Each structure stands twice: as C-alpha cells, then as structure tokens.
Automatic annotation (TrEMBL):
SUPFAM superfamilies membership: Class II aaRS ABD-related (SSF52954), Class II aaRS and biotin synthetases (SSF55681)
Broad class of where this protein is predominantly found: cytoplasm
Organism this protein belongs to: Microvirga brassicacearum
Compartment(s): Cytoplasm
Subunit structure: Homodimer.
This protein's name: Histidine--tRNA ligase
GO CC field: cytoplasm
Segments traversing the membrane: none
GO biological process: histidyl-tRNA aminoacylation
Binding-site positions, L-histidine: 86-88, 116, 130, 134, 298, 302-303
Sequence similarity: Belongs to the class-II aminoacyl-tRNA synthetase family.
Catalysis performed (reactions): tRNA(His) + L-histidine + ATP = L-histidyl-tRNA(His) + AMP + diphosphate + H(+)
Matches recorded under Pfam families: HGTP_anticodon, tRNA-synt_His
Length: 493
C-alpha cells in the first residue's frame, strides 16, 4: 500500500478505547455494584445490543426518523433495527416476551453498552455503559423507595459515603402542573418533552436559563440556539414555582407541592405517594441521604410516577480550573406503561440506572481505592536467547502457567536489549534468562525488574550498576516456580 493510500488510524467521534488499567479498575467497580444489587435480591440478565426500532418506542426523540437519536439500519426483510438507546426498553421487551415464565414481581439487573446517535462533546459519548436494576410487576411505592435506598447503599459501598444525595420527585405532581398550564393533551407530547428537558437542566442553567427554554428558546455560549417549549409567561412562572417548592424539610416540600397542584387529582396523588416514600425512607434510616426534590423530572417521557436521581455533592475543577459540582451519576423512576405496550394487561415497573462511565470518573476524582488501587503486575517474560531452543522456553512458560503465574515467552525477532525494553513496557515484574551456559548447568537467571529499577535509581553510575548486576540471581531450573513466586510475593503480597 502506498503512502497516499494509507488509512488514517482514528476512533470515530464520540467513541473511546480503554486500556488494561481502566478495564481492571472498571471490573472492580462493576463487581461492587453487582454485589450490592444481588444483596437486594436482584438477579442478572443480558439483553441484545440490537432491538427492533419499534420496540424502543415512541419515547425516543424524533420517532419518525429512525436514525435520529439512535443508530439504525434495515434488515434484509426491510425491518428497522436499532442499537439499544438504554437498557430499560430492551428489558420491557424481554419481560413481555418471557412473561409467563418469570416470577412476578421480577427483579433483575443488567450491565452493558448503550448507544446514542447524538452530537458528541466533552464528557458526552455516543457509546457508554449503564448498570440498571428494575422491579417489574409491583405497583407499590415501596419498590420505588427500595430503589433509592439501594442506590444509596451502592454509593456507600463504592466509598462515596457523605458525598452524595438521592433526590426523589413524582411525575404525577408534574402532570398536575402540566394540566394546570394546558399542555396535558395527547397531541402535545412533544411540547411536554421539551418542558421536561428544560426542567432537567435546572442545576446547570439556573432558573433564567430554564425560563428561556420554557419560552421561545435559548442561545448558548457557542451561539447554538435551542428551540423552547413556547409556554406563555404565566405558564412558565407556574412551572418554575413547581421546581422551587423545596422546603426545609420533606414534609414542608410535600406541602408546597400540594399547593402547586391544588385542584389536580393526579397531582395530589403524586404528592401523597411522595409522603409515603418519605415515611419508608425515614423508617429505614436513610432520611439523611434520600430527600424530596421537585427539580428532578428525568428527561424521558415514559416515566409515570416517582423519579429519582443520584447526585454527587463534592466539587471538581473544570477545564478552566473553576470549581464545579460533579453532578448526577444515575437515576430512574417508575414506568408503568412501558411493558404494557407489549401486553394486553397493565404491568407496573420501576428501575434505577447508573451511568458507569461518569461514576468511574467520579471515583477517580476522589482517588477511590476501588479504581486507583495497586497496579497489577504484567506477565513474567521468558527471554529467547537461542532461537533453536524455543521448545525449552515454551516449556518454562507452560510450567509457570500451570502454577497459576501469568507468563509468556518473547515472540518477536529482536535481541536481548529490545526484549528487556519489551518486558518493561509489559510491566513485567521479572524476566527469565537462559542461555547456553545456564542450560548446561541446569539453571535459569531471574532478573527482578522492580528491584533492579530501585537499585539503578540509587546508584551513581551506569558502570557501577552493571558491576553490581542488581536483583539478578540464578536458581536451578526445577526451582523456577518457587523463585518467581518469591519475587511476586515480595512486591505484590
């Protein structure tokens, strides 16, 4: 291939690669989340990456344009398929498809990648991981309260105790507000969704920014214009009053909400459910971490009752060095209509979703030992000193592997100096050296690279280092496993 024909190596915008350190740290974090979810009685399940676009439902943005918001393609039978947008819609399809075989309520968790066909930006990816837990088949608000308590326990178990709050609201309360301002009709779903998304930006944009999005629209710092919901000034004021109903206590907040939705049966029902959840949370000892907050609405329209959000309260610095709150790392709510799209009977459900990538970034920011623990060693590398002795080097590697020690022999074509550099790049704790002289004696040389690096740093000259041959020793070949284990235990316990 000529230089002109060479393809530029680059990841698509909004997608990211991950190295071994991040993979290992992510696995530790996921294991802790999984452990907490299983403690609450949830079982794992895995759904397909791809769903029929119609199964994702009317709740996705721009449903009439299959590629808008989701990555879609047509099958050979001209059916539209899409990469999953979240983990909730696929669960609804799975439960409906296996309804008679599943216990009800059905409690499950899922971890996996989801995809958004949206404009990428700083911290905004087109592929990211979520970790969800859902209870399907229970209409009790106790299931919602339990989700919030489990979210709190999860963050505690990840080392974030005292650095977060779980906020709860109820979409029925907001429905009462929407009724009051006259946009509760079937033909006004798009306008309602715009209102929900505007309120969801309250923490980031403040009341003035939200007011613009509720009205004609808002132009951001880059000059991009976002069209607003087109509400009248009076309607905008009513919506903002709803978001500002927070009181000094949960009881005071609920009372303020009752006033905002006065005259709406659905709104008053939502306020009553919030009072029930608050009582359950307090009885279980979570009132210091789980609070009623009217600003939480969640952006998707499929929520039908309580909604909740896990928000981290500590500060980090932005790109300009200014302190900012880390913000939300998860959320969810009740979606009683989603499974029922596939069934003749109503199926209540509620769930919580963790944004794994964002939570991982938060744990790194607070230097959590879960993601910043001691680095794991790379493989022991057996150097190839004599190319006609590859079989004997392979035998050494096999011996180490059978003993449970990560090991490899050098498969390249370079000399000893390049092989040593390779071992350093592999983060190898030690290398095994056997030339003809060692082979005749039935021995191998073991070079402890970690100890050698320390000794080299302490010595004054390269000649002194070579003379000392730091951390290099000989052992009988049949003592290879024991000697390597000694090196590993010295550095990694």
């Amino acid at each position: 291939m000529s230089k002109a024909d060479t393809i530029k190596a680059r990841a698509p915008r909004g997608f990211a690669d991950r190295g071994p350190a991040d993979l290992a740290a992510s696995e530790r974090m996921l294991a802790k989340i999984r452990e907490t979810f299983e403690l609450y009685g949830f079982d794992g399940v895995e759904t397909s990456f791809v769903e029929y676009t119609e199964a994702l439902g009317k709740f996705l943005p721009d449903q009439d344009r299959p590629n808008e918001g989701v990555f879609s393609f047509q099958d050979d039978d001209e059916q539209w398929l899409s990469l999953r947008y979240d983990l909730t819609a696929p669960l609804a399809r799975f439960v409906a498809e296996n309804f008679d075989a599943l216990p009800k309520p059905y409690r499950s968790y899922r971890a996996g990648w989801v995809f958004r066909n949206e404009k990428p930006g700083p911290g905004r990816f087109r592929q990211f991981m979520q970790f969800d837990a859902d209870t399907v088949g229970s209409a009790s608000v106790a299931a919602d309260a339990e989700m919030c308590m489990m979210a709190a326990d999860t963050l505690d178990n990840l080392g974030l105790a005292g650095q977060y709050v779980i906020k709860i609201n109820n979409r029925k309360v907001l429905d009462g507000v929407l009724e009051a301002i006259g946009i509760a009709g079937e033909g006004q779903a798009g306008q309602r969704l715009t209102v929900l998304r505007a309120i969801d930006k309250l923490d980031r944009l403040g009341a003035d920014g939200v007011a613009q999005l509720l009205g004609e629209g808002r132009k951001d710092e880059s000059g991009d214009f976002t069209k607003g919901a087109g509400l009248s000034p009076a309607a905008t004021e009513r919506v903002l009053a709803f978001t500002q109903a927070q009181g000094a206590t949960g009881a005071e907040t609920i009372e303020n909400l009752r006033k905002v939705v006065s005259g709406s049966a659905r709104g008053e029902e939502g306020a009553t459910e919030l009072a029930e959840i608050a009582a359950l949370v307090e009885t279980s000892g979570y009132a210091d971490r789980v609070i009623i907050d009217p600003s939480v609405v969640r952006g998707l329209e499929y929520y039908t009752g309580p909604v909740y959000e896990a928000e981290l309260t500590f500060q980090v610095q932005d790109e300009d060095g200014r302190p900012v709150r880390f913000g939300s790392v998860g959320g969810g709510g009740r979606y009683d209509g989603l499974v029922g799209r596939f069934r003749p009977e109503p199926v209540p459900a509620t769930g919580f979703s963790i944004g794994v990538s964002r939570l991982f970034s938060a744990l790194k920011a607070v230097k959590s030992p879960i993601v910043s623990g001691s680095e794991q060693p790379g493989p022991v590398v057996v150097l190839v000193m004599d190319k006609d002795q590859v079989a004997s080097y392979q035998r050494m590697v096999s011996t180490l592997r059978k003993a449970g020690i990560r090991a490899e022999f050098y498969l390249g074509s370079s000399g000893m100096k390049a092989q040593m550099k390779y071992a350093d790049k592999r983060n190898s704790p030690c290398v095994i050296i056997q030339g003809s002289n060692e082979r005749e004696r039935g021995e191998v040389e073991i070079k402890d690279l970690i100890e050698g690096a320390k000794a080299a740093a302490a010595m004054g000259s390269n000649a002194e280092w070579k003379a000392a041959r730091p951390a290099q020793f000989s052992v009988a070949e049949d003592k290879l496993v024991d000697a390597v284990r000694d090196v590993l235990s010295r550095h990694f316990g």
